[in-house]
Specification:
It comes from Nonlabens mediterrranea. The protein has about 130 residues and is an all-beta fold. It has strands at about 1-5, 10-25, 25-40, 45-55, 60-65, 75, 80-90, 95-105, 110-120.
């Protein structure tokens, strides 16, 4: 498990290899990840958007921006956490992801960024 704390917000990431399949006559490698966002600060926060940098070992880096996570903009009170599951497709058995969440501190109404630590995506059969 990969973990990092930014401004009292702890991000924990667990990854899994979900399998291979063909799409448009091309082999794809599916990876899943579970992210837990834990509020260790003294103020309630809301996750408003996300930015991902997805690196595939065989192709260029892709940047993905969007509102919230999986259709939600969770409010996380002090001492509480929000967990969600998602995934991505790569054209190779190796890659990594990193990024950040944009959040709002309800006490100050200020926006701030929370680092999503880089995590590896690797198919177990490709490791030696």
């Amino acid at each position: 498990m990969i973990q990092q704390v930014t401004r009292g917000i702890k991000i924990s990431v667990q990854t899994s290899f979900e399998g291979t399949f063909y799409k448009n006559y091309k082999m794809n490698f599916a990876f899943g990840y579970i992210i837990t966002i834990e509020n260790q600060s003294k103020n309630s926060v809301q996750l408003t958007s996300r930015h991902w940098k997805i690196k595939d070992s065989l192709s260029k880096t892709e940047h993905v921006d969007g509102e919230g996570v999986i259709g939600q903009k969770p409010v996380i009170k002090p001492g509480e956490s929000h967990t969600y599951q998602s995934g991505c497709l790569l054209s190779s058995p190796f890659g990594n992801m990193s990024g950040y969440y944009s959040m709002v501190d309800f006490a100050t109404t200020k926006k701030f960024g929370v680092v999503i630590p880089a995590f590896k995506l690797s198919a177990p059969f490709a490791l030696n």
